[in-house]
Amino acid sequence: MKVGIIGAGATGLTAAFDAVRAGHDVTVLEASSELGGLAASTVVGGTPLERFYHHIFRTDRAMIELIDELGLSGSLRFHKPSTGIYLDGLHDFGTPAEMLKFPRFSLLDRLRFGASAAALKVFRDGNRFNSVRALDWMRRWAGRRVTETIWEPLLTGKFGEHAERISMAWLWARIHCRTFELGYLHGGFEQLYRALLEAVTDRGGKVEFDKPMSRIAQPGEHVEVGTADGSRYEFDQVIVTVPQPAFAKAAGIESDDLLWRNQYLAATCFVLELDRGLIPHYWLNINDPRFPFLAVVEHTNMVDRAEYGGRHVVYVGNYVPREDWRFTTDPAELLAHYAPWLRELNPDFDESWIRDWQFSRAPFAQPIVTPEYRSLIPSHRTSMPGVTLATMSQIYPQDRGQSYAIAMAHEVTARLGLA
């Protein structure tokens, strides 16, 4: 069949790989000039680096298997980096023992915190939590002090005004499916997407960049796709992997359709190249509500900075509404606003430490997973028989991640008989 795939991220490229191996004529249309979608990369010290921080877990089997299949296993290494939280100072928070020693907790708090986290590791079916609000569950089982200290700041930092409505199924997935060991594809995850691109094109497939979808319709047997530059394509089957608001707009679906009800937050992220280290941890959650950002990730506390020309690589990340000032402000001005808060993390910090920086935004990065969310998830099947939707919003309850996107691509291509 003649197969069109909209989007060259993890889902789109994996679906293209499956389909082209099965002998289909495949064309991938990507809106930007880059591979990888939310895992797209820039370059630091001559080495590709993700624009938004990325790692994988031991449980990410689909990702690990694809890395192996493409001959990249030699670059995948697992680490045990340190994690901390900032609340009235820096605190180690990366192991069960460190979590239970948190100074704000009484003995009872520690017992309830440990028992609630252990229970979530044991529960294998997150569907039991679909209609439960995360903070309600945590207040009941982990206790009010633990919830106010740990879970409320994290959910508020991520979801803002929606924090009280976030489903426990989402939080269960974040706790149940994660491991203390983190994997990184040394040399950057771009290697994976480059290998997929080469595997697709070597088998006769095409990947076209700077082709944002402007129209999609199926007036007859074939699916017609138009792009912003005026190009027109005709396919037997189309797999759409871009966020559903983009699909709905191109398909002419009314704004009150279910496809529009799933709300998204935007992501913003600085990549700072420093001449010295900022924090002692790889990952630092910011539990102080005064701060204007959610997390600081010092990538080179997990990956040797020699891979980046000796620079210390630090991410400063956020999830915000698209109308929020942290999404709309000029990046240089925003960085100047962040600098005093970085100094609060490290009193010695000076802006002269920043040798270079880059800033990225993504308008549809984080679905807001409320108890009603599951009922709003659209089917992979659309009103057009030749069009299949395979987007991040359909990954539930995990909601994001390269491995889940890869697994969904395999599922969709198998269901359509394309693999």
TrEMBL record:
Name of a matching Pfam family: Amino_oxidase
Region forming the signal peptide: none
Ranges where the Amine oxidase domain occurs: 11-392
Top-rank taxon: Bacteria
Stated name of the protein: NAD(P)/FAD-dependent oxidoreductase
